[in-house]
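Thanks for the sequence, V.! I ran Choline transporter-like protein right away. Repeating your input here for the record:
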Amino acid sequence: MEDERKNGAYGTPQKYDPTFKGPIYNRGCTDVICCVFLLVAIVGYVAVGIIAWTHGDPRKVIYPTDSRGEFCGQKGTKNDLDDRGRPGLNKTTRKENKEGETERGQSWITCQVVMNRNKPYLFYFNIVKCASPLVLLEFQCPTPQICVEKCPNRYLTYLNARSSRDFEYYKQFCVPGFKNNKGVAEVLRDGDCPAVLIPSKPLARRCFPAIHAYKGVLMVGNETTYEDGHGARKNITDLVEGAKKANGVLEARQLAMRIFEDYTVSWYWIIIGLVIAMAMSLLFIILLRFLAGIMVWVMIIMVILVLGYGIFHCYMEYSRLRGEAGSDVSLVDLGFQTDFRVYLHLRQTWLAFMIILSILEVIIILLLIFLRKRILIAIALIKEASRAVGYVMCSMLYPLVTFFLLCLCIAYWASTAVFLSTSNEAVYKIFDDGLCPFTAKTCNPETFPSSNESRQCPNARCQFAFYGGESGYHRALLGLQIFNAFMFFWLANFVLALGQVTLAGAFASYYWALRKPDDLPAFPLFSAFGRALRYHTGSLAFGALILAIVQIIRVILEYLDQRLKAAENKFAKCLMTCLKCCFWCLEKFIKFLNRNAYIMIAIYGTNFCTSARNAFFLLMRNIIRVAVLDKVTDFLFLLGKLLIVGSVGILAFFFFTHRIRIVQDTAPPLNYYWVPILTVIVGSYLIAHGFFSVYGMCVDTLFLCFLEDLERNDGSAERPYFMSSTLKKLLNKTNKKAAES
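Predicted structure:
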């Protein structure tokens, strides 16, 4: 052991410190430069958020926008433009008018603001035009759209309504300020009123035709056809295509309401299921102290027995096929067959299976013989981790702190992203039903009526299309979004690193307590949290920064890959696939290295690079122990998650489907019983994962402490072993008394 410590193949361990008796509490600040960089980046991130919140408007995402670029159902919007893009009474024209006219214009605008606030729904003049391919290009239907107080509930044409008592009802679906001083042809040509009203229902704040099926036939009201307002009758399927283009799923709102109803009647039962999952997770961790060895050895024996049965079954099939016609054909002569069942009728197939299973059986038995001691060490460490968690029980609640901080990061990132994406200006484009050569070109709604485009295309409209911009700020939006995503990754990784260092410090204080639990600090978790923030913020920021750089590169590669999917360049696709694979592997390796580096930071208080190097070489000098412990803990955690999630999920299934007779009348009636069941299953998995992540951090911390204990100490009075009595017994190690020393 002495020679191995001095001449390690993967590096030299730290120098011996005769006064070392546990984690170093006399710490200093590490990686201060990275701490300063993090603070400066946070200040810049706050500045980006303020800029985004100043220029952005989330109403552009939430509320529908009419043809003038105004929000439906919102106060404070100004109806300065009519539906064809003609300027109304804006600030410029008010200055040129007389004082009385200015007051009248101001009152007219105020009236329109109030009216628009009470109009929450968007009405399409001709929903059929939403089936145009232009919708996919401009994200806007090439038809006038206005905000209305409610969707039409009757079938009317403009020709019929003009000469009837229904005209007052019809006028509310015309453009604001419409006056009946034009002929029918002029009104329809100028787009002042829709040609026809169709019974509609609101969906996602938009009016869509109230289409329903009766005996397999699509109908609106009691009709299978409708008059388009120009004297022609059309089929209802034209409305369906337009509605599908304008909104993808017509029944989404109904589905969402049913799911919401299920949550309202089952939420307390869902909470009870999650509490059961929490209790089972805690119970499983406690039982690992007593059953870890039994579960591991039962698993190994079961694998050996299963492989043994497989060998026996292959031999029986091999013997049964002896003498059958065609069973002696070789695999090479048979060649490749799409029906794999053909291979099961060949003796050579079963012989190959038997040889492969026999080799696996021999390998597992040999590994069991030579790695028996290391398996016992892994089991002892798992049991010791269960004791450590029992003494630092508040560590089980720390994932809630991490979850809360991650929620803050996600909320800030999401809100900033939304405000940045909605900080563009309204862009207006030319829409025309005919063959206007200027269609889809940008326009200015104030100057459009007197422009050359308007003269050449009399039926064209300068209509709101989407939000964009050409200023320097708008050109920098993509860079700001990338910076927003990068800072999210950096801060999220920093929060995770803080949790890992805190837990590692708490569990390391348990291991390095010579008399457990008497030498434990009063509040080990809070002490570790304070040390991490006070001394090692820079080191945590350094590790999180490296990981964030790799993750943002992966995001950019995914974005480029989506852009290159339509390309036919096979070399570019191959190169992109290789880059994605390499950076995926790099991210996994950095996560592994960071985790162990944070443990070394918690133990010794060294900087990030030193801790990462020492942890890496320490693990490489004990690579077999690392592999055995990793696989044993992975198996136990997988078994625990399957047990907890499966048990709670089955219980939830039988309960919500009314299959438990004792509580059959207690279960609430549901529209979709899978809604609470899936919620309980996903919540149980997250709870089990949170508990086991703490337990896994405890195992990894104790393992590194155990390896350091072996290399630093020799059992003398000056350097006693800090490991538990079980581990000392397995390794034949003892602590000498002071007199003997």
